[in-house]
Design goal:
- By secondary structure, this protein is α+β, with helices and mostly antiparallel strands.
- It has two helices and seven strands, in the order E-H-E-E-E-E-E-E-H.
- Strands 1-7-6-5-4-3-2 form a seven-stranded antiparallel β-sheet.
- Strand 5 (69-76) and strand 6 form a beta hairpin.
- The chain is globular.
- The relative contact order is 0.26.
């Protein structure tokens, strides 16, 4: 099983960040790569569409409001992986209440691609996503 993790410090308090990204259906609010999200099964499944029209279906597998994190599994996507589980987590930064650290991590099995190719793919997706989050919060 392969894994990757990317973290960024963003210009907002942990609660402000969580208020923006903590909703499982909130990706279009901060992630340009996902302009459309439809909540299914009472909000436990999201159907995402990217700008190319590709569909990604993900299931919420863990959620902790108090600790500010959630985990999800990909059910269907155009990515060369299976067994994908990812976590989006907001951390406090010691001694600071005006910034937060956001960590996006995932583990997965490569399928039809090398481990390095898949690690590079998701490292790029997470880094680009957290850069977009930073821009949204800085605006």
């Amino acid at each position: 099983m392969a894994s990757t993790s990317v973290s960024r410090v963003v210009p907002a308090s942990p609660q402000q960040v969580w208020n923006l990204i903590g909703g499982f259906d909130a990706l279009p609010d901060w992630l340009p790569y996902i302009p459309e999200s439809t909540a299914l099964e009472g909000g436990r499944v999201r159907r995402l569409t990217n700008p190319d029209g590709d569909v990604i279906i993900e299931r919420l597998v863990g959620f902790d409001e108090a600790e500010r994190h959630y985990s999800y599994a990909i059910l269907e996507a155009p990515f060369p992986v299976d067994g994908y589980v990812s976590t989006l987590r907001v951390h406090t930064v010691p001694g600071r209440d005006d910034v937060a650290e956001v960590q996006w991590s995932g583990r997965f099995n490569p399928k039809g691609a090398t481990e390095q190719e898949v690690v590079d793919l998701f490292t790029g997706i997470y880094a680009d996503g957290l850069d977009a989050l930073h821009k949204t919060l800085a605006a």
